[in-house]
Amino acid sequence: MRVVICGAGTAGCVLAARLSEEPGLEVTLLEAGPHYRPGRWPAELAHSHRIVKESHDWGWWARAGASPRLVHVPRGRVVGGSSATNGAIALRGHPAHYDEWADAAPGWDWASLLPWFRRLERDLDFPEAPWHGDAGPIPISRYPAERWPELQARFAEAAVACGHPEVADHNAPGALGLGPIPLNMVDGARQTPADRYLDPALGRPNLRLESEVVVDRVRLVGGRASAVEGLDRGGRATRWPAEAVIVCLGTYASPACLLRSGVGPEEELRRHGIPVAHALPGVGRGMQDHPKISYRFDLVGLDPPRWPAPWYQVLLTGTVEAPDGPRIYQVMPYNGVADGGQRYTDLNVQLSDARSRRGSVRLASTDPRAQPAIEMGWLLEDGDRAAARAAGERLLELAARAPLADVLAGWPNLADPDHALRTVETFHHPVGTCRMGPAEDPGAVVDGAGRVHGLAGLWVMDAAVIPRIPSANTHLAVIAVAERLGSAFRAAGAEEARVAARSEAT
Fold this sequence. Notes:
The protein has 12 helices and 27 strands. By secondary structure, it is an alpha+beta fold. It folds into 2 domains: 2-142 and 191-288 and 358-378 and 430-505, FAD/NAD(P)-binding domain (3-Layer(bba) Sandwich); 144-180 and 291-353 and 380-423, Cholesterol Oxidase, domain 2. A hairpin with a 6-residue loop joins β3 and β4. The radius of gyration is 22 Å and the shape is globular. The two termini are 16 Å apart.
């Protein structure tokens, strides 16, 4: 059976590797960016401690929710996707937020997801912990305290002095406090699903990678996916026939692909003159993302380490009270930047428990090379704004505590009511634009196996299907989702497609 996977990002690399383990599946993986073999990554991608924006990025922008600003939303254009351009932070988040997934799709609670988190990881620091894996493809490690640069050490000491508990493992269930950041890296080099899943599988005869091609749409015939249409590396219109199509283009591009295919809200499709193949009002709706609010300080008597030194090694997680209950936040101090004679650092508050559900992705053009219209849902809810302000207050209390206060100057003004709106940006964790849910839910796009409601032979299996944003970076969650959905496809989806193919042949 021919399977075409659209997008070789985090999820696509995992799925291509896992599905090609099944000899009866002929897997083609399509990706717009270039492919680098292990050990041949450009320096800016091999280094794992910052978001890469200057290369291998689509250069997309979004409206910033309650703020009138336009903000850059990173999205990797390379085999490996954003896992090759992100900060290599390997956090899971709190179990209670995964339990909420089961409200949308039974069986997607934390206890059911934990085996998939364990399957993907090889935790180098806690291999014997019952919540960790010790033999998975993705190695995870942490910088020990003796290797923290001065700013990180000062931040950690000030956080403990403020009463935050010390945490050895931020991926322990329910962990809150100050401790080292878990990273998917080895000796400073990022370890991506491209390296750890896809490349070891590329020698299989039933797996083919086609890079530097742009996916346009899924061709639907009689309510069934029959092919993927797009542009080859020469810009020529090309079709890839398939009995099964799995869309893994990411939270922004997966709904855009469905819309160009005639799948989505009828009014949106008609606005662009796209024939309605299948009305599905949830496509592109309900996006969630973590807002990042920055507090910039001048550094006094402290020289930031030079690139490629790490940007960060420690993380603080805590809770604040908001009108709608307690909220989780994170603070990640950057080691600082020396630029034009200025030395400064950003202490960033991430509202990890954001509950606004108003982000969206719509088409700006039917051209697959054009970016969609992206509206972030940041700070639109009173509770989110209150939680962001409270988290900022906790941060400034910590910054005023020795020994961190001794190297900071040029304090931001927390009394400024517009500070959050002026500084809010993405922490690069958008989810939910093709979210899971039952068929009777008007906002749901796929079922618990990733099948698009009302269509045959079409799946979505990436961050877009996540029904509730985790309280942490989403990289590990996306790998776990792809692992689980890939397994479900092999067990059930492949057989369903075989039956349909035999039926059509007769």
